[in-house]
UniProtKB/TrEMBL annotation:
Pfam families: HEPN_AbiU2 (PF18734). This is HEPN AbiU2-like domain-containing protein. Residues 31-196 form the HEPN AbiU2-like domain. The lineage of its organism: Bacteria, Pseudomonadati, Pseudomonadota, Alphaproteobacteria, Rhodospirillales. It comes from Kiloniella antarctica.
Amino acid sequence: MSEIVYRKQGACEEKVTSIMEPAEKKLHIDFKALRDHCIEIRKEYNLYCNLFCEENRDILTKVAAAFFFDIAAIIHRDWKLQVCKIMDREEMNGKENITIDLINSRLQDNNLLNTEIEDTTAKLKCFGTKISTARNKRLAHFDRKAHFNGQPLGGTSERELLEFLSELQNYCNQVGELIGLGPLDFSCCAIQGDEQDLLKQLKLVVK
């Protein structure tokens, strides 16, 4: 079946004619949605690091310590939720979720799933398992026992976090190359974000 596909490239749209079977079409659509979500995960991580790094501690504390503490906590909680979303089962209660499992299932349907992607998936799932207790007992639900125990949940080391981000990039590149969409480096932003502009203004005010 021949169809017209529109691929967004910046502010422009490229009109492309392609021949795509239904299973392949689903794979492309779902993967692009998952990769977009992975980009948001990385952007939120970069935002947190750019704003709440050690060198900014003094200026943020002087300006509005409680406010920035709350913002940091909100970003931290949301980041874990967004990561856990892509770790979910591909289907729950009869409804499909856009997850790593769904993409791998689509790859399997197209006879494309390979050991390299399976190995990367296992590494991602290992990290997901470690933070899932925080999502299940604190973030998405208000578990009574976990609340009154007061034990930290979902903790990981800095090394584990950095390895996860690297494997997330690897997974997206591996699948992207395999299905003809190519790799896409989303490890850093092309331009400085609003957080950098905010810090510049704060430093002008507080000297």
